[in-house]
Amino acid sequence: MRQRFxxxxxxxxxxxxAYPLGLRGVVVSDGQTFEEALANIKxxxxxxxxTFGLDALGELVATENIYLAEAEVAVDV
Length: 77
What we know:
The chain has 77 residues and is α+β, with helices and mostly antiparallel strands. It has one helix and three strands. Strands 1-2-3 form a three-stranded antiparallel beta sheet, with helices on one face. The longest helix is centred in the middle third of the chain and has 19 residues, at 34-52.
């Protein structure tokens, strides 16, 4: 079985960080390039599903249900 996931890839000072939508639990990976981060997250997704089984699959997220928003919070340091 093959499953397609939406993946968020963020550029950081140190490279790229990637995480998928539609999985139960936390799956994050990184890479020096966009392509490396994407390749690494594919392996991380496969490992997550191998480890936790099909119960790790959440609901697939439709593109129209993905939002980018801001949240302002007080930070006391």
